[in-house]
Amino acid sequence: MDYHIKGLQVKELKRKYIAEHGITARQFNSLLKNLTARLASVRESLSFREQDLLGRIG
Hints:
The chain is mainly alpha-helical. It has helices at 2-6, 10-21, 25-57. The radius of gyration is 16 Å and the shape is elongated.
């Protein structure tokens, strides 16, 4: 979330999360990729929802 919301650098976050949560770099990369894909899906869904609502209103 820090990467997507706060715009922090991946290098900084990776070091921080590995140290704080005891995960491997591979696990961090997997989590980041999964979260990125999930957020893209939500954004796309919101876009379709917005178009649908605007079509119903207009």
